[in-house]
């Protein structure tokens, strides 16, 4: 399955901020793990004879394995892929007990970023074993549309915030034609910014605030890649505080204010360019722009960055 910007953002959170998955696991599987519970990230690559399959996440908490997939569309074949992934995970962690093996499936779910009224609450399939017994494979489906910004903060489901903008992806032209509606969107994101800042920076987690905000802007830039005013509006609201926090961090490291702001703006500009290259499927140019200043400047002009 081809990587998308949604997969990249989800995996970034899982790899760099795995503790964000804990409230989501508690929400879906009705557990009560504390946020600082020990999490072990298991391998996402599982080799099979016909090729490698890569899962979005596989986490170990205590002796329980949790497998979460992020899916951008309501794909009816997802349940088949999930049981394939789960079987590969179970085989890899099979326990030998005398002459027998115990294969335990992980606790799995799918996060649907887009869904419809036909998207089920559970993905299910019947599995018929050689002895004739039939077992139901059933895993929960999490739908972004079920969560408001208020419920996300109430349940501490901060991992969902970067994808919240997707509920508005079909309204891009409406925002251009309706200033009042556009202002409502900006007000909502100002509220998200304030809540996120209160949630994280006041508890000494300003770095997490910065990282999450960058991912929120990254997804918004992609969703509204053809709507410059919308991109700029959300970017100004969410990015302004990030610039301030990053500037403070760099000044604490001994940079002057001018040097700090210059470095941040350069990093932000390069990040925007890489996002645009990903959107246009020009991934082969990403390593080049990181090292070739001349080519980087050419692409800045091409993308008007």
Could you outline the blueprint of secondary structure elements for this entry?
Layout: H1 5-16, H2 21-29, E1 40-41, E2 45-48, E3 51-54, E4 58-61, E5 64-71, H3 78-92, E6 95-97, E7 100-102, E8 107-112, E9 122-128, E10 134-143, H4 149-154, H5 172-177, H6 179-200, H7 206-223, H8 228-252, H9 257-279, H10 286-291, H11 293-302
Parallel strand pairs: 5-8, 8-10
Antiparallel strand pairs: 1-4, 2-3, 4-5, 6-7, 9-10
Helix pairs in contact: 1-7, 6-7, 6-8, 7-8, 8-9
Entry summary:
The protein is of the alpha+beta class and 305 residues long. It starts with a helix and ends with a helix.
Describe the structure.
The protein is α+β, with helices and mostly antiparallel strands. Strands 1-4-5-8-10-9 form a 6-stranded mixed β-sheet, with helices on both faces. Strands 2-3 form a two-stranded antiparallel ribbon. A two-stranded antiparallel ribbon has the order 6-7. Strand 6 and strand 7 form a beta hairpin. Helix 6 runs antiparallel to helix 7 and helix 6 runs parallel beside helix 8. The longest helix has 25 residues. The protein is globular, with a radius of gyration of 22 Å. The two termini are 31 Å apart.
Cross-sheet strand order for the largest sheet? 1-4-5-8-10-9
Mean pLDDT: 84
What fraction of the residues are assigned to beta strands by DSSP?
15-25%
Sheet having the most strands: 6 strands, mixed
Kindly report how far apart the N and C termini lie.
Answer: 31 Å
Number of helices: 11
Structural class: alpha+beta
| Poorly predicted regions | none
Q: Helix amount, in percent?
A: 40-55%
Secondary structure: number of strands: 10
Please give the radius of gyration in angstroms. Answer: 22 Å
Looking at the structure, what is the overall shape? globular
The ordered H/E elements are HHEEEEEHEEEEEHHHHHHHH
């Amino acid at each position: 399955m081809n990587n998308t910007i949604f997969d990249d953002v989800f995996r970034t959170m899982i790899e760099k901020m795995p503790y964000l998955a804990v409230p989501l696991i508690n929400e879906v599987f009705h557990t009560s793990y504390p946020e600082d519970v020990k999490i072990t990230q298991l391998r996402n690559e599982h080799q099979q004879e016909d090729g490698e399959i890569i899962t979005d996440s596989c986490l170990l908490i205590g002796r329980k394995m949790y497998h979460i997939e992020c899916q951008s569309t309501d794909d009816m074949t997802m349940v088949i892929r999930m049981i394939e992934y789960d079987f590969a995970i179970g085989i890899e962690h099979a326990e030998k007990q005398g002459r027998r093996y115990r294969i335990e499936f992980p606790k799995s779910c799918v996060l649907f970023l887009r869904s419809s009224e036909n998207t089920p609450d559970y993905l299910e399939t019947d599995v018929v074993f050689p002895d004739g017994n039939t077992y139901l494979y059933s895993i929960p489906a999490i739908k972004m549309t079920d969560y408001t910004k208020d419920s996300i903060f109430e349940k501490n489901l901060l991992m969902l915030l970067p994808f919240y903008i997707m509920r508005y992806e079909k309204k891009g032209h409406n925002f251009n034609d309706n200033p009042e509606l556009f202002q409502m969107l900006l007000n909502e994101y100002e509220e998200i910014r304030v809540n996120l800042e209160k949630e994280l920076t006041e508890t000494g987690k300003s770095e997490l605030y910065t990282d999450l905000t960058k991912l929120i802007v990254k997804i918004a830039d992609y969703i509204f890649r053809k709507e410059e005013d919308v991109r700029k509006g959300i970017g100004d609201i969410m990015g302004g505080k990030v610039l301030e926090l990053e500037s403070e961090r760099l000044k604490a490291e001994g940079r002057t204010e001018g040097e700090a702001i210059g470095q941040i703006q350069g990093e932000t500009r390069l990040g925007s360019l890489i996002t645009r290259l990903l959107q246009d499927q020009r991934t082969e140019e990403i390593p080049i722009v990181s090292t070739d200043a001349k080519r980087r400047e050419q692409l800045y002009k091409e993308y008007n960055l």
